[in-house]
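pls design
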């Protein structure tokens, strides 16, 4: 095979890749992500979670609603099949409950129009999420957003950590996972470093 045929194959592959990329970019889409963080108001810090709404597409996206999901019961394959048979639709999140942030008094700033390459951040205090999870069976949460055309997008499952008072006795039988420690008096968060087991 001479070099001309190689160049023709290369050009065909490249043009196909560019076409697929342009088609993907032509569709409006948005992403939803969760990250732990702090919010500062008048010098006081509050721990919580930021919900990040991101627009990686080449078109403006209009976000109208955002909510949390938490699990209220264990479900298996049989439960999903029964749900699909009853409601004539497939759902990946059977056993999850939607909880709109509006009912918790969260200032979402919605509706919002996200231009290409832009994002919108929503801060939710730790106590708000902790109170919501008291109605669930574990500490897993998902954030979901809906655009003006009722298209839904969900974040990955997020394991919401338990925050402990650093003054609490560590020998109380609880497990110290060394993630985040909350100090209720000052609303500050510290990273706790576990001491070596064989330290002299």
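designed seq:
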């Amino acid at each position: 095979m001479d070099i001309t045929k190689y160049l023709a194959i290369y050009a065909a592959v490249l043009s196909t890749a560019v076409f697929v990329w342009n088609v993907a970019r032509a569709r409006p889409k948005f992403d939803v992500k969760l990250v732990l963080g702090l919010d500062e108001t008048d010098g006081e810090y509050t721990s919580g979670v930021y919900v990040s709404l991101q627009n990686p597409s080449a078109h403006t996206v209009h976000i109208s609603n955002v909510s949390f999901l938490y699990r209220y019961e264990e479900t298996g394959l049989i439960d999903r099949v029964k749900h699909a048979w009853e409601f004539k639709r497939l759902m990946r999140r059977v056993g999850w409950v939607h909880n709109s942030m509006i009912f918790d008094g969260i200032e979402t700033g919605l509706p919002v129009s996200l231009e290409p390459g832009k994002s919108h951040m929503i801060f939710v205090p730790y106590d708000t999420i902790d109170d919501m999870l008291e109605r669930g069976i574990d500490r897993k949460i998902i954030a979901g957003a809906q655009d003006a055309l009722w298209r839904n997008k969900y974040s990955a499952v997020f394991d919401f950590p338990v925050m402990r008072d650093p003054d609490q006795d560590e020998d109380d039988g609880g497990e110290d996972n060394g993630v985040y420690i909350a100090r209720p008096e000052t609303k500050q968060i510290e990273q706790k470093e576990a001491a070596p087991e064989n330290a002299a």
